Each structure stands twice: as C-alpha cells, then as structure tokens.
Amino acid sequence: DIRRLFENLFQNAIESIPNNESLKISIKTGIEDRNISVIVTDSGSGIPQENLEKIFSPDFTTKKKGTGTGLWNCLNIVRAHGGGIKVRSEVGKGTTFTIYLPIAQPAEIR
What we know:
globular; four-stranded antiparallel β-sheet; 3 helices; 29% strand; 26% helix; alpha+beta
C-alpha cells in the first residue's frame, strides 16, 4: 500500500514536467505531533488553484489518458493507515504533498 502511494506521487510528478524540462523531487521525513511526516516536493508544473480542491476526488483528471484514481488512491491508502495528507502547489513552481502517518506503538515486551 505505502509503496503504491509513493509510486502514484512520483508518477504524477514525472507527468507534470513541461516540455522535457528536468524534474527535481525531494523527500524529507520527520516527526510531528506523534506522526511521521513525509514531505514530497517536486519541481513540476504545479496544480492550478481551482483544481486543488478536486485532486483527491475519484475520476478527476486533467490528463488525456488519466483515470483520476491516482491521488484518490493515495488519500485512501493514507486514511487506511490512520493518517492524513495535505497539498500545496504553485503553478510554474511545483507541488508539495505532506503525508502524516501515526507512529505505531511498539508491542509490550514481556
């Protein structure tokens, strides 16, 4: 599941590169409020403001051959693990997804 989450994010980043420009993806991890945070930032074309509210909806796509299920699947994977996901984007500058996953409590040692 988690692997598919990141595959979808990376695939969207790759597909957002305008006209064979180079793409940079950075990944940062940390701990925030009892959650593991994973911040994935790309230098792609960005998401227009009017689309940000729709990107996690099933069947929403701006791609000619897209199905609209990639980011919807990402949201469902994160939620299935008890987490959340946020997005920030600026057209022409790229997109940042921040994923929060709760830190699992280790089993009690006997």
